């Protein structure tokens, strides 16, 4: 696969590199956060489809290798210069989901943790969707989960439960009831998040929409761990 030359872009990047030297996060080539070859490799990677909370999830990428590196650079180091190659396929999946859904379907984002938002200074999903040409989206709201200390939201743990079982249940218990949807009664919804690993957070988002009277028709993520 060949890439058409971009002399003006190359000249601009060469000047920027004099003051802010960077190297490709994929292969280490100088003066590019992601070189043309690695961009082409990224664009050619297949998406992933899985079920979360009984709903189809479309992910633009599998969360591994170069994709994982780019996501971590964006989320942990604020490298917004790598958002576009991740955001464009994410936006395309959202538009496809809307095309497949009934008219009037809402797009709601899974909100970042307050700590993550404060550290980065921006909402990763908002940035990725903007780079993918998707704007005017809503978001779910975070709330403190109800329930007395030491008791899971799905009920008390059995006394005989082993350590591994308790450890597996704790992330679910800590997540259930932490998201709330507003204004979705009788509406169809597409949910969007950046990365889906265990699926617990996205499943909670699905639960929140259903609890508010809405229907989740599709989930979309930039990257997903293969289930």
From the structure above, extract its key features.
two-stranded antiparallel sheet; 8 strands; six-stranded mixed β-sheet; alpha/beta; 8 helices; disordered N terminus; single chain; 227 residues
Note down, in words, how this protein is organized.
- This protein starts with 6 loop residues before the first helix and ends with a strand.
- It has a six-stranded mixed beta sheet.
- The protein is of the alpha/beta class and 227 residues long.
- Mean pLDDT is 84; it is low at 1-6, 10-19 and 148-159.
- Helix 8 (200-211) links the parallel strand 7 (188-196) and strand 8 (215-224).
- It is built from eight helices and eight strands; from the N terminus they run ααββααβααββαββαβ.
- It has helices spanning 7-19, 36-43, 65-77, 83-100, 114-120, 124-131, 163-175, 200-211; strands spanning 48-52, 55-62, 106-109, 138-139, 141-142, 179-180, 188-196, 215-224.
- The chain is globular.
- Helix 4 packs across helix 6.
What percent of the residues sit in helical stretches (DSSP H or I)?
A: 40-55%
List the uncertain runs: 1-6, 10-19, 148-159
Share of residues in strands: 15-25%
Mean pLDDT, as a whole number? Answer: 84
Rounded to the nearest angstrom, the radius of gyration is 20 Å
Q: What pattern of helices and strands is seen along the backbone?
A: HHEEHHEHHEEHEEHE
Largest sheet geometry: 6 strands, mixed
Output the structural class.
Answer: alpha/beta
Number of helices: 8
Q: What would you call the shape? A: globular
State the end-to-end CA separation.
31 Å
How many beta strands in the DSSP annotation?
A: 8
Spatial strand arrangement across the major sheet? 1-2-8-7-3-4
